[in-house]
Amino acid sequence: RIMLFTENKALMELAAQINRLLENHLKVKADYRRSEIASKRMLSNISHDMKTPMTVILGYLEIMRLNGEATQEMLAKTEQKAQSVMELINQFFTLAKIEAGDTDIELSRVDICEICRESILDFYEMLTKADFQVDVDLPQNAVYIQGNKEALQRILFNLISNVIRYGSDGKYLGVFLRTDKKSVFVDVVDKGQGIDKAFAESVFDRLFTMEDSRSRSIQGNGLGLTIAKNLALQLGGEILLESTPYVKTTFTVKLKKISY
Predict the structure, then answer these.
(1) Which of 75, 114, 235, 248 falls between 20 and 30 A from 102, CA-CA?
(2) Model confidence over 32-85: pLDDT tens digits?
(3) For the chain, what percent of residues have pLDDT higher than 90?
(4) DSSP 3-state assignment of 213?
């Protein structure tokens, strides 16, 4: 910064403008550096997430080629890993479209309670098999918001999937809906490993996954929360996070309420 000792108002204003330009320049450099680091991390994660299933696919194909035949088990595992790669590619495509503004999200009057119920039912079999305790508290009467059904379903799908992947230690899922005069809040709660404060700001970054998630039986690719946050922003809302590891982790979707 420039330090100037003068009583000349014109020079004081000039120095202030130069200092503002210098601060903006430093901010741009810092943002670029963060973006560069994020890009390198993203490429590393992409490599990991695609290399693992592709290695399995190629391994089974090699075995089938050498044996001259394919068992149903081998075909099923090969198909499963190919679907994992396809899912990753589709999520990249979805996120790219959202961030580029190419996704046309039409807003209308929708009942958020009904969407919550449908989303929980979609996971009923999986939650039952995993022996989850499920608590649901939704109003009996409809609660309307200005939103988009498909976008809201995708947001809740990603948040509940996140609970099953990373909060499974707690064996608990809670979905609660509350309102005030202007907003509707949907809380998706788990009691698993949670998110340390050091990672709280990074959890919505592209392809961010906590280190130990790489060794879990159910792995995520770090795109689900990013997509959920971007969709919430396009609906005029936001997603908030509060977490105390192994006590309570809450992702809150805040949306605009309408009364008509």
Answers:
(1) 114
(2) 887 777 667 666 666 767 777 888 888 889 988 888 888 888 898 899 889 888
(3) 44
(4) helix
Side-chain-side CA neighbours of 200 within 13 Å: the count stands at 13
Tokens of 182: 């202007």
Q: Name the residue type at position 247.
A: V
How far is CA 32 from its chain centroid? 23
Which residue matches tokens 């003068």? 6
